[in-house]
Amino acid sequence: MAGHSKWANIRHRKGAQDAKRGKIFTKLIKEITVAVKSGGVDAESNPRLRLALQNARGQNMPKDTIDRAIKKASGEGAENYVEATFEGYGPDGIAVFVECATDNNTRTVSNVRSYFKKFNGSLGKDGCLQFVFDRKGVFLLNAEGLDEDDFTMEMIDAGADDVEFNDEHVNVMTEMEDFGSVQKKLHEMEIEPIEAGLQRIPTTMKETNQSNFQTFMKLIDALEEDDDVQKVYHNLEFDEALMADS
After folding, report:
1. pLDDT of 137-180, one tens digit each?
2. What is the mean pLDDT of residues 31-54?
3. Burial tier of 238 (Cβ tally within 10 Å: 0-12, 13-18, 19+)
4. What is the CATH number of the domain that holds 11?
5. What are phi and psi of 159, to 5 degrees?
6. pLDDT tens, position by position, 87-112
7. Which residues, at least 6 apart from 237, have a Cβ–Cβ distance to it below 8 Å?
């Protein structure tokens, strides 16, 4: 059941993001900017930029938009973003981990705190969720043309922990230290992921009732709508009945 839960959470987050495509492009451009600022414009020697460009292409971002983002990030006057994380709890003690990139940390702290307070949650101390989430490498791929058995064996040989085919997509999960080897294998196989990166995967799941579920989803929506927020992770166990009634 744990395997089902982690993929259900990943799929739900992906679906929620797809509904806000403009926000996705904004966050991808910010990630490209941070990557260029930290490691330069050469994707071959800058793994973070290479991953950011891969994710941008996976979301069908136009090439000229990508090129403009790189050029702007490498020039004078480009935004300087500070990366920040927040750990807290939503209603019913549901764990929430927020990753941000901001040019005004005071604003970001104030906004994130206000969202938690408004929707019956609270921020915790840094590290309070260290045992709730594991850092894992996650790849989302298009399943078209892939033989399930052959592909699964290729991924396991490359270091993947888990490979799951779901309808039109394939999820591949790795330990953090094996992310690069799986990424290299996919490149050799000429497979371009729709999305790839290190994600925070819950080690334990939390159930809740309908009322808290609705409040919690408002918290998640508020966080994901904030331009300073890059990614939001949580450990809510999704129940089909709760989602159907919401």
Report:
1. 999 999 999 999 999 999 999 999 999 998 889 999 999 999 99
2. 94
3. middle
4. 1.10.10.200
5. 120, 5
6. 999 999 999 999 999 999 999 999 99
7. 5, 205, 206, 207, 208
Same domain? For 69 and 91 the reply is no
> Residues 167, 158, 4, CA angle at the centre, nearest 5°?
35
State residue 235 phi and psi, 5-degree precision: -120, 30
Predicted model pTM? 0.86
The pair of structure tokens assigned to 212 is 């808290």
Distance CA 66, CA 31 (A): 11
Cβ contacts of 54 within 8 Å, gap of 6 or more: 192, 193, 196
Q: Provide the domain limits for residue 141.
A: 133-202
Q: What's the total number of domains in the chain?
A: 3
